[in-house]
């Protein structure tokens, strides 16, 4: 089995991802469904991503109700953008993979990076 920190590289923080992490503004804190975005390894699948997020954020927790539960994982392969390197030659940023995870209602990640 792969190390969870090799699968989950870092959180992907944008204005839209932060808004998703707050959940529905009309829902209460017990019923809010929150989504979090991470940059993941290109060869990681949804099952590995779910297990890695749960392993990272449940490490050191004892009670069952304090542990997080991932209910859904959506993955997107992002194409690298082209950019200029030097005066005339063009280059390309590498391709990467993004995962949007959905937690069970009422759960949140405290140390997401926001």
How many discrete domains?
Answer: 1
Computed over alpha carbons, the radius of gyration is 16 Å
Number of strands: 6
Residues in β-strands, percent: 25-35%
Task: Please state how the strands of the largest beta sheet are arranged side by side.
Answer: 1-2-6-3
Main β-sheet, in a few words?
4 strands, antiparallel
Residue windows where pLDDT falls under 50 for at least 5 positions: none
- Inertia-based shape: globular
Distance between the termini: 29 Å
Tell me the name of the CATH class.
Answer: Alpha Beta
Overall residue-averaged pLDDT value: 89
CATH superfamily: RRM (RNA recognition motif) domain
Description:
The protein has 114 residues and is an alpha+beta fold. It has a single domain (4-103), classed as RRM (RNA recognition motif) domain (Alpha-Beta Plaits, 2-Layer Sandwich), CATH 3.30.70.330. Helix content is 22%, strand content 29%. It has helices at 4-7, 15-22, 46-58, and strands spanning 8-11, 35-40, 70-78, 82-84, 90-92, 96-103. The strands form two sheets. The protein has a four-stranded antiparallel β-sheet with strand order 1-2-6-3. A two-stranded antiparallel ribbon has the order 4-5. It is globular and about 55 Å long. It starts with a helix and ends in an 11-residue tail after the last strand.
């Amino acid at each position: 089995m792969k190390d969870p920190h090799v699968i989950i590289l870092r959180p992907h923080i944008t204005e839209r991802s932060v808004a998703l992490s707050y959940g529905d503004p009309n829902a209460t804190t017990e019923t809010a469904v929150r989504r979090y975005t991470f940059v993941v390894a290109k060869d990681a699948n949804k099952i590995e991503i779910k297990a890695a997020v749960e392993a990272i954020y449940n490490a050191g927790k004892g009670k069952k109700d304090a542990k997080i539960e991932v209910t859904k994982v959506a993955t997107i392969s992002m194409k690298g953008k082209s950019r200029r390197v030097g005066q005339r030659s063009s280059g390309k940023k590498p391709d990467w993979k993004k995962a949007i995870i959905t937690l069970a209602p009422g759960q949140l990640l405290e140390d997401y990076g926001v």
